[in-house]
Amino acid sequence: MCIRDRLIDALTLPEDSSVVQVARRTFLSGGSNPCVNTVSEFVEDNATLIPKAPMKYAKNHHRAQAIHSKAFVTTGGFDTFQVFYCEEYSVTRSEWRDLPSLNRARSNTATAFLNNRFLYAIGGSNTNSEIEMLDFNEKKAWIPVVFTNELAFNNSPAAFPISDHEIIILCGGNTASSGIFNTRNNTVKNFPLGNIVDHYMYNAVSIIDKKAYIISYNGNIHFYDIEEKKYIEHPYSNLYTPKD
């Protein structure tokens, strides 16, 4: 039995939910079949889910992003249509508050939090490779970013910062490509994946010891070395068989 099957046997997990880690705590939010606004914390010691304050809006295919070490933000998503909603969850108070809505409704978007201040929403369904930015010092409005672009990342991308002004974008969908978004000059340049040929590289990204571990939809793990600035194939593969 594969890892994914064992997890499903142990817990009842909502489909198409979003998972985020904040200060070594793991939270699941939303999901589909039916669309829900539930939030739970996963406790690894006894493999249980502890209910938390629900989101204000039911959604799935949204993105949860850690903000500082005491909060996370859910951005976009899908109910019966793509949504504009953004909400912030306080881990210490277990409560939600509304943030400004996106300019473009989107699901399956990528997010990246830069310099402990700027939250970026990158691509996603219902967009044409568009980027918006929310300044967390002000929290007034999402600002559309005007930039020059060399690749398409509209459907299910992933993203993570690699410096104080650069964000790696992994193109989603049936595309094995990536780029670097430079926030100083607002450009997105192609960045080769090296020997990695793996479509659907958007499922999850976790940064550990200056390496970004990338779990693809196909169940493979690759990583990006932030110091050496290159992709490296990882020996782990076939962690699970994706659903049809």
Helix-strand layout with pairing:
Layout: H1 3-10, E1 18-22, E2 25-31, E3 36-43, E4 48-52, E5 63-67, E6 71-75, E7 86-90, E8 95-98, E9 110-114, E10 118-122, E11 131-135, E12 142-144, E13 148-149, E14 158-161, E15 166-170, E16 178-182, E17 187-190, E18 204-208, E19 211-215, E20 221-225, E21 230-233
Parallel strand pairs: 13-17
Antiparallel strand pairs: 1-2, 2-3, 3-4, 5-6, 6-7, 7-8, 9-10, 10-11, 11-12, 14-15, 15-16, 16-17, 18-19, 19-20, 20-21
Write a structural description.
With 244 residues, the protein is mostly beta strands. Helix content is 3%, strand content 41%. It is built from one helix and 21 strands. A five-stranded mixed β-sheet has the order 13-17-16-15-14, with no helix packed on it. It has a four-stranded antiparallel β-sheet with strand order 1-2-3-4, with no helix packed on it. Strand 19 (211-215) and strand 20 (221-225) form a beta hairpin. The longest helix has 8 residues, at 3-10. The radius of gyration is 17 Å and the shape is globular. The two termini are 18 Å apart. Mean pLDDT is 82; it is low at 1-8 and 237-244.
